[in-house]
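re: that chain from earlier
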Amino acid sequence: MYGDGATIRKILTESGDTWAVVGLSSNRGRAAYGVAQVLQRFGKRIVPVHPKAETVHGEQGYASLADIPFDVDVVDVFVNSDLAGPVADEAVAKGAKAVWFQLGVIDEAAYDRTRAAGVDMVMDRCPAIEIPLLG
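^ sequence. v structure.
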Protein backbone atom coordinates (compact mmCIF):
# COMPACT_ATOMS: atom_id res chain seq x y z
CA MET A 1 0.00 0.00 0.00
CA TYR A 2 1.55 3.27 -1.09
CA GLY A 3 -0.18 6.01 0.83
CA ASP A 4 -2.06 5.31 4.02
CA GLY A 5 -5.52 6.57 4.91
CA ALA A 6 -4.11 9.66 6.61
CA THR A 7 -2.13 10.62 3.51
CA ILE A 8 -5.13 10.02 1.26
CA ARG A 9 -7.32 12.19 3.50
CA LYS A 10 -4.67 14.93 3.66
CA ILE A 11 -4.29 15.07 -0.12
CA LEU A 12 -8.05 15.12 -0.70
CA THR A 13 -8.92 17.66 2.02
CA GLU A 14 -5.85 19.77 2.82
CA SER A 15 -3.45 19.80 -0.12
CA GLY A 16 -5.46 22.22 -2.23
CA ASP A 17 -8.12 22.22 -4.90
CA THR A 18 -6.17 22.63 -8.15
CA TRP A 19 -5.53 19.19 -9.62
CA ALA A 20 -3.49 18.70 -12.79
CA VAL A 21 -4.75 15.48 -14.40
CA VAL A 22 -1.95 14.08 -16.56
CA GLY A 23 -3.34 11.97 -19.39
CA LEU A 24 -6.74 13.68 -19.45
CA SER A 25 -8.16 14.21 -22.91
CA SER A 26 -11.65 14.57 -24.35
CA ASN A 27 -11.83 10.79 -24.86
CA ARG A 28 -14.90 9.83 -22.82
CA GLY A 29 -13.86 6.16 -22.87
CA ARG A 30 -10.76 6.77 -20.77
CA ALA A 31 -10.81 6.50 -16.97
CA ALA A 32 -9.29 9.96 -16.57
CA TYR A 33 -12.39 11.54 -18.11
CA GLY A 34 -14.78 10.15 -15.49
CA VAL A 35 -12.39 10.61 -12.57
CA ALA A 36 -11.90 14.28 -13.48
CA GLN A 37 -15.69 14.72 -13.48
CA VAL A 38 -15.89 13.25 -9.97
CA LEU A 39 -13.11 15.55 -8.77
CA GLN A 40 -15.01 18.54 -10.16
CA ARG A 41 -18.19 17.45 -8.38
CA PHE A 42 -16.23 17.47 -5.14
CA GLY A 43 -15.01 21.02 -5.71
CA LYS A 44 -11.64 20.45 -7.34
CA ARG A 45 -10.44 22.54 -10.27
CA ILE A 46 -9.06 20.12 -12.82
CA VAL A 47 -6.33 21.06 -15.27
CA PRO A 48 -6.07 18.69 -18.25
CA VAL A 49 -2.48 17.77 -19.18
CA HIS A 50 -2.16 15.90 -22.47
CA PRO A 51 -0.04 16.37 -25.62
CA LYS A 52 -3.21 17.52 -27.46
CA ALA A 53 -3.80 20.28 -24.84
CA GLU A 54 -7.56 19.91 -25.26
CA THR A 55 -10.19 21.74 -23.23
CA VAL A 56 -11.96 19.12 -21.10
CA HIS A 57 -14.88 19.64 -18.71
CA GLY A 58 -14.68 23.36 -19.45
CA GLU A 59 -11.04 23.65 -18.37
CA GLN A 60 -8.16 24.75 -20.62
CA GLY A 61 -5.70 21.95 -21.32
CA TYR A 62 -1.92 22.14 -21.43
CA ALA A 63 0.62 19.95 -23.23
CA SER A 64 2.79 19.49 -20.12
CA LEU A 65 2.96 20.39 -16.44
CA ALA A 66 5.65 22.94 -17.27
CA ASP A 67 3.24 24.73 -19.63
CA ILE A 68 0.69 25.43 -16.87
CA PRO A 69 1.11 29.15 -16.06
CA PHE A 70 -0.07 28.85 -12.45
CA ASP A 71 0.56 26.66 -9.42
CA VAL A 72 -1.03 23.24 -9.09
CA ASP A 73 -1.62 21.54 -5.76
CA VAL A 74 -1.94 17.89 -6.75
CA VAL A 75 -0.77 16.04 -9.86
CA ASP A 76 -3.00 13.06 -10.68
CA VAL A 77 -1.20 10.70 -13.06
CA PHE A 78 -3.01 8.53 -15.64
CA VAL A 79 -0.03 7.46 -17.75
CA ASN A 80 1.60 4.04 -18.00
CA SER A 81 3.89 3.10 -15.12
CA ASP A 82 6.99 3.33 -17.33
CA LEU A 83 6.17 6.99 -18.09
CA ALA A 84 4.98 7.96 -14.62
CA GLY A 85 8.34 8.50 -12.90
CA PRO A 86 9.32 11.52 -15.00
CA VAL A 87 5.83 13.00 -14.40
CA ALA A 88 6.36 12.68 -10.64
CA ASP A 89 9.72 14.44 -11.02
CA GLU A 90 8.06 17.23 -13.02
CA ALA A 91 5.38 17.56 -10.33
CA VAL A 92 8.06 18.02 -7.65
CA ALA A 93 9.86 20.57 -9.85
CA LYS A 94 6.56 22.40 -10.40
CA GLY A 95 6.07 22.70 -6.64
CA ALA A 96 3.03 20.44 -6.30
CA LYS A 97 2.12 19.48 -2.73
CA ALA A 98 1.15 15.95 -3.71
CA VAL A 99 1.38 13.36 -6.47
CA TRP A 100 -1.32 10.73 -7.02
CA PHE A 101 -0.63 7.70 -9.23
CA GLN A 102 -3.87 6.08 -10.38
CA LEU A 103 -4.85 2.42 -10.03
CA GLY A 104 -2.29 0.26 -11.80
CA VAL A 105 0.30 3.06 -12.02
CA ILE A 106 3.28 1.89 -9.95
CA ASP A 107 6.86 3.15 -9.84
CA GLU A 108 8.49 2.47 -6.48
CA ALA A 109 11.62 4.50 -7.27
CA ALA A 110 9.47 7.51 -8.19
CA TYR A 111 7.49 7.06 -4.96
CA ASP A 112 10.72 7.06 -2.93
CA ARG A 113 12.11 10.12 -4.78
CA THR A 114 8.87 12.06 -4.39
CA ARG A 115 8.57 11.30 -0.67
CA ALA A 116 12.28 12.15 -0.17
CA ALA A 117 11.56 15.55 -1.74
CA GLY A 118 8.94 16.15 0.97
CA VAL A 119 5.96 15.73 -1.33
CA ASP A 120 3.00 13.56 -0.30
CA MET A 121 2.28 10.67 -2.63
CA VAL A 122 -0.31 7.96 -3.14
CA MET A 123 0.17 5.20 -5.68
CA ASP A 124 -2.14 2.55 -7.18
CA ARG A 125 -5.31 4.20 -5.81
CA CYS A 126 -8.15 6.23 -7.35
CA PRO A 127 -9.32 9.55 -5.87
CA ALA A 128 -12.79 9.07 -7.38
CA ILE A 129 -13.12 5.95 -5.22
CA GLU A 130 -11.53 7.49 -2.12
CA ILE A 131 -13.15 10.95 -2.03
CA PRO A 132 -16.76 9.79 -1.45
CA LEU A 133 -15.52 7.65 1.45
CA LEU A 134 -14.38 10.73 3.39
CA GLY A 135 -17.98 11.53 4.34
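The chain has five helices and five strands.
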